[in-house]
Please model this.
Amino acid sequence: MRTALADFRSSLERVRDIADDNDKNVSAILSDSALRNRCESVRCAATVILSGFLESFLKQLADKCIGAVSALNKPFASLPEKIQHSHYEFGGAALSRRAQDDRARRPSRIQATAHNIASRLASVASVPYDVVWEAFAETHSNPNSETIAHYLKRFGVDRPWDRLAQKQKVTTSPLALQTRLDSFVLLRHECAHTGTANTVPTPSELREFCDLLDAIADAIVSVLEDHVASL
Model:
């Protein structure tokens, strides 16, 4: 799971580099309106990209976490009911979506074949098995606080935002953490849907977004590591 976090942090550095480059060239940017417009567009685009990095991280983390659960080689029926239900309910939904895409002969956002998903759904009848990690990875292209809560609940994590807040290095209330993430996501939507924002994020704000997502990602990994260790 730490591999997913390391990859995510490498991605965040790309956005931090954009912010640093803007700061280094601030004099030229302020004196050239065309350059200023381009830099503002880049910062808006970077905000959208950050959201994409977070979604990619959550999917990679789900894969790694479920791999760790499967590697425990415990009877599937002994796992938390939430994990069992997610495997069947959302794994079945992933199978259905992939089958529909295949029937319509259209590209699918689910990379696994329908046969592969079906095999993994049935694999839990014995040990070893391979839980359908895609069942735990849905982000609905909207990684806000509610999405993160549902994400963790699929693994059987109760009171997810309380748990995440407890993992913060700096004392932060669960509500404050959720509000900061949701504010970022709202700005992301504005940038994605209009190409700009009423208040274009500054280089400093881009770095703050990176710090926020880094902290949340680190907390999610820590919570899931504790959860798997308790199974």
